[in-house]
Amino acid sequence: MKDQVLIRRSKWELSKKRLLQSELGDSSLSLYVESFEVLSTWMKHYQRLLKRTLNGWEGIIQNIEILVQSKVEKLCLQTKETIRQEQGLLVHLIVEGKYRLVPVLWQFSAKEKLSADRFIRAMEEEILPEIRAARWGEYLLEQTCLPIILEPWLASQLIHECIGHSSEADNYLTYMKPNGYQLGMVWTDYPLQVYDDPTMVGMRGGYEQDHEGSPSFCTQLLKDGVWTGLLHNQETAQMLGEQRSCHGRRVVGKKRIQPRMSVTYAGAGKESFEEMIQIKKGLYCVGTWGGGSIGLEFIIRPAYGIYIEDGRMTNRIIRGFDIRGNKLEAIRQIEAVGKDVKFFNPFFGCDKNGQNNLPVTHGAPHLRLRKAHLVPIGF
């Protein structure tokens, strides 16, 4: 298997110096190149740890591809503290499953030196369970509707796609308000709290000022399940009579500033995980292969699901399905929210209107939905 390992550097890494020069100017170049070299050293160390761990699956893992990426971004022209620099690993595996070869995707990003213990814990909690699920999991063969529990990574994506995008003020004006959905409406009877807080500058989506120079502040999108806030740039704030805005953002190289999410998360609920799985039959959905939304419809793709029967986790695993539906109907189905909020800084960011990979952060606890629509991939 060692001969099959492929280490590649992305176009971001190859054009790092040119990007730094164009965004920061020559005077800042040496400082940030040096900090990148520190991150690069640790990324190589992470690669060695990962390869050593995966060697234990020889004969099961048919191919490993590790992509190293580096990024620099100038967040705002009005301040000096505007530089985002980070590196990440994108790991693509091919696992021999029960009936076919199964792809597994894992990403790990870092803005600073991290301990080996933290990286090992991330492997144990994320990529190794997915390898086991790819090895032994069955594929969903027909559409079904049943109760589901979303682990925090996947739950945060549901919040991002359904509530976050709907609360971006340009989207609100385009497809929410024209369809009769306005501030003050009830998204869910559960007392769900949802925030977007760019003041959390330690997160990938955080910043001190947006690209229009507006100081950042926290916006509560949902209070006790009720829609209370929108995300604005200066244009939409004026259109809707809001006094302030701080979510005017753009990606590097683009001029158009749009209302965009930053650090979007659901607050903690009151249920423990043990309480949440006390259902007759359902599915615990884990990990994510991404998602998206168009208008009122959304889609998220779990890495795999584990069946729950009579309040207990079983050994039955399924893969190859999407969770799809109407955004409002999905959030309306929330009936339990965990105590365990976790934050995620995906190396690949949010896409909107041709401006892709904007840095964002997701956060959520476990969520339980009374029912959700599961569709086999390809249907």
Topology:
Layout: E1 6-9, H1 11-14, H2 16-24, H3 29-54, E2 61-74, E3 83-96, E4 101-110, H4 116-136, E5 138-139, E6 144-150, H5 152-167, H6 169-176, E7 194-196, E8 219-223, E9 226-227, H7 234-239, E10 248-249, E11 258-259, E12 263-266, H8 273-276, E13 281-294, E14 297-309, E15 312-319, E16 321-326, H9 327-332, E17 334-337, E18 342-344, E19 350-352, E20 355-358, E21 361-364, E22 367-376
Parallel strand pairs: 1-2, 5-15, 6-13, 12-21
Antiparallel strand pairs: 2-3, 3-4, 6-22, 7-8, 7-12, 8-9, 10-11, 13-14, 14-15, 14-16, 16-22, 17-22, 18-21, 19-20
Kindly describe this structure.
The chain is of the alpha+beta class. The protein has two domains: 2-136, no CATH class; 139-379, no CATH class. The protein has nine helices and 22 strands. The chain has helices spanning 11-14, 16-24, 29-54, 116-136, 152-167, 169-176, 234-239, 273-276, 327-332, and strands spanning 6-9, 61-74, 83-96, 101-110, 138-139, 144-150, 194-196, 219-223, 226-227, 248-249, 258-259, 263-266, 281-294, 297-309, 312-319, 321-326, 334-337, 342-344, 350-352, 355-358, 361-364, 367-376. The strands form five sheets. A six-stranded mixed sheet has the order 9-8-7-12-21-18. A five-stranded mixed barrel has the order 6-13-14-16-22.
As a percent range, the share of strand residues is 35-45%
**Count of DSSP strands:** 22
Give the count of structural domains: 2
Helix content: 25-40%
Question: Briefly, what is this?
Answer:
This protein is α+β, with helices and mostly antiparallel strands. The chain has nine helices and 22 strands.
